[in-house]
Structures are given as C-alpha cells and as structure tokens.
Amino acid sequence: MNNHMRANLKEYAHLFNILRDGEGFWKIALYVRLSKDDGKSVSKSILFQIKMIARFIRDELKNFEVVDIYIDDGLTGTDFERHDYIRLHDDVENKEINCIIVKDLTRYARNIADGIKELDCYVLEHKIRFISIDIPEIDTYKDPKAISSPEVYQALQDAENHARNTSVKIRRVQAVKREDGEPTGGFPPYGYLKNPDPLEKNFIIDPEASEIIKQIFLWSYSGLGSTAIAKKLNDMGISNPTDYKKSKGFNYSNPHAKNNSGKWWPQTVSRLLKSKVYIGFMEQGKTTSFDHKRHKQEPVQSEKHILVADCHEKIIGDDMFENVAEGRKARTRITKTGEPHLFSNLVCCAGCKRALAKTNNKNQTSYLVCRTNRLLGNFCNEKASVRLDKLEQDVLVLIQSQINLVADLQAIVEKINQKPKIKNRSQRLEELHHETQNKINSSRKKLTDSWNDWKDGFLSREQYIIINADIEKKIEQLQITQKNVLNLQNKIKQGISSNDRYFEKFLKYRNIDSLNRLLLNELVKKIYINSDKSIDIVFNYQDQYLLILDFIRENNIDIKNQKIRKREK
Fold this sequence. Notes:
By secondary structure, this protein is α/β, with parallel strands linked by helices. It is built from 18 helices and 17 strands. 45% of the residues lie in helices and 12% in strands. Strands 2-1-3-4-5 form a 5-stranded mixed beta sheet, with helices on both faces. The radius of gyration is 31 Å and the shape is globular.
C-alpha cells in the first residue's frame, strides 16, 4: 500500500478494485456526507456511498487516479461550512483535483440558491468534471449543460424542502422537550453529570465540579468580583469547565473556546453565577438559529429563555443564589476611599454618550465629568459635568416623580378595567407591524432583483454576494423587530391589569427618601447630563410603559386631561 496515501483513502482503500488507471488524467475526489437527520439509514451511510462510487469508478471510468475521500459525517447540507468540503475546495484550488464524484446531488448541497451558484459557477469556472451517479445523473464532461437542467433545479428544491420540513419537525420536538424540562443539549452544565439511568432524563450532581461551584458562590457572597474569583481559581490550578470535561474523557467541544487555554476568565465566572441551573432549574432556549439554512447561533433575550423549576437536585440554596444576585447588582467600582460609586456606569454625557468619570476638586467636592475631549481631542460639544451630591438630589426627585406617574397610570388602568367593554389593542403596534412587513417584502424583492442582475451579468459574483448578505442581514433584523411587535400585540390582547409587574417594580419604592444601587439598577437604564446641567433619565421597562399608554388611549382616555404628574424623560 502507498505509504503516502491520505488517511481517509487508506481506511477505505480495500473497497476499490483499482485506485489508478492509465496515466491518471482524472484526479478524482469522492465527496460523501451524512447529516444527523439521515439517522442510521444504510442507503445513505458513509460506507454505502463509498461502495457505490467505487463500483461506478470500476465500471465506468478510465485513465484516473483516486486522490482522496472527503467525508463530512453528521453535518447538514444546507450550507457549505463543512470541514472536508472546505478541504476539497482547497485541493481544487491547488490543482490536485479535477473530478468530483458524489452518490447523489443532495450529498453535495441541500440549499437551492447556494447549490445552483456552486454548480453553475464554481464547478464550471474551475473546469471540474462533476459526476452525480444517482438520479438526476450528471457528468459535466459528457454533457456540460446537464448541470443547469430543470431536473437538477428540482432535485435541489426537493432537498431543500426536505431539510426545511425536517428542521421544523425537530424544532417542534425540541420545544416540547424544553417545556417539559427535558434536556435537549449534548452535555450537562458544569457541576452536573448525565443520569446513568437511560429512563431518567434529569441531571445528577458531579461530586467534584459541584464543590467548585459552591466555592465560587461563597467567594461572590463574601464580596469578591468575577475577576478576583477567576484569579483565585487559576492560582489554585483548577481547570476551567471546558478543560475539566475533556479531562474526564467527554467528547466535548465549545465553539466559543476554540483556543481554550484551560484558564478561568471573569466572563465564565459571571455566567455560572447567573445560571439558575444550580437552583434546580432547567434553562434552555438561550440561543437560536434563524432557519434551516443559517446555522449561526444567535443569543435569545434572557426573559425569553425557557425555565422549568425542580428538574434536578440543587447545588446552591435559593437564599444564597438571591443574595449573590443582589450583591452582584449592587457591586460597582470602588473608589480610592473604599466607598462604592453610586452612579458608576449609569451616568453618561448627552453628547458623546460616554460614561462620566468621577473626580474631586481642591476642596474634595466630587464631580462627574466628561473626559472625551481630554482623551480624544475636540470630539464632544456638550462637555457635561455635574456635582455628585447635586446629581443625587435631582435624580431622587425625578425618580419620585416617575413613581408618582406610575401610581397615576395604575389608577387609570384600574378605572378602565371596571368598564363593561374594554379595547385590548394598540393602533401604534398595528401600524408598526404593517410598516415592518412592507419593509420585509421590499427587501425580499431586492433579493430577487439582485439574483436576476447577477444571472444577467449586470453584477459580478463578488458584488452579488455582498449585496445579498447585506439584504439578508436587514431582513433578519426586520424579522426580529416584527417578532417583538407580535409579542407585544399578543400581550396587550390579554389586557393590562392594575397588578401588572411594571406597576409593582416602581411602586414598591413609593416611599423612598434616598437612593441606593439596587434601586438604580432596577429602575434606571441610563442618566444623561446635558451641558446646561439638565438631566434626562431613561427608565427601564419602556416597552411595557408604552403598552400601558396605548391601552389607556385605545380606551378613550386622554392622558393630557387627566390629573397626572408630568413625566420626565
């Protein structure tokens, strides 16, 4: 056997009668792929695909050399982010391959747009002989036009439809499992192990890693920040979660830790301290992909995560978890005097939107000032500054005013709910929904137009790819907006109660006479200081606030004519 034979070919060489014929003009690459949804089907297995292609080569081809077998096992065909597919492309670019053979077209692509682009452009431009031995049969050497036949388009369309339908079914099954608290991921979170009983889906505690989790929470409860905790763990030589799982023999890989150093990072510590999994919750649905073609995982807003309580034994007690959470909210930058800065990272310049820095004058009076011009030159026109004690007084008054406003809104909502007929709708949201849908339709038309311009030669391939990516990104953003609007519409359809959580969040501070960090974190998003020393406060829960105003207006109550206190920005 040739000692220089590549690893994949060496493993399956026994399936071939001959690996080289004549002068070996055709440098053959076998491309085989098995996706997860193919299951254990013998007809689609890697071994079966190789056997079929080997038989075809034996019976049909002359003057060839089999260079390698490119195998993507367990990967989808709806995109081209596949390891061996990329390796195949590199070998084509290096002139090592001039003939690609697949069992059937769906092994190569299941995405009609990218599939056609790949076959029409890449294969023909690189003068590759492309052979598909199953229906639809393709051999671009014998019939170059076969690659653009209606049968090929239909096969790709059928394959994409199958991928889409499979994706929908899998998502539905996973949604049911998540709602039942059943794990859908491959590995338990750090601190837990899979239950050895196959009939039990819940996690069991990992005796070793769970002690590290307990220590992390104790350190945080005692006042240490995430950076200090990470340093302690590294100094003690404790492996981070990724290294720990690998050291236990798990076939674990973290896409966010490709260059894992084995060290703890503050972000890792923060993530563990926020995770409710340690108080018995199953928390899932934290990321999602857009559809069956775009597999990049995007984060989901934390309030939309699926949480199911009492799914497994707790590592941390509820009181400890809550105390740590409150302590982390209140924890902020420590000044030279050892006192925490009440407004740290909350107060910004209205001009440059950068956080104001704390400084003292000669009399040791504390100020917050914009340092953008000092750091970056003449960049900010506002040059905001405010005396810290004066800011605290003014912010307290504004928050008290906002709380009074919320109390007035609650009274109006309670009055509306006593009426015999209530309108649970929002004209503002309906108009926004219609406007967003029109923008989505317009963007989709631009996608079609750019495709036609590319096919007709008005755009280069590079121009088409750039334009297509920009439009698809815009559509994704619009669809996220549309989804948020629909969620808000569904919420207002259920009605607004005087017991709404928005009222609860503000009114529990009704009798405040001083500020603290917990209050500010809960109610305030940002505080902006203008050059004239005026203050603008952006409060949290703005979506719910606007929803309440919509509810009031739809029920024919003019807020301006009510005895209601003026709301600050």
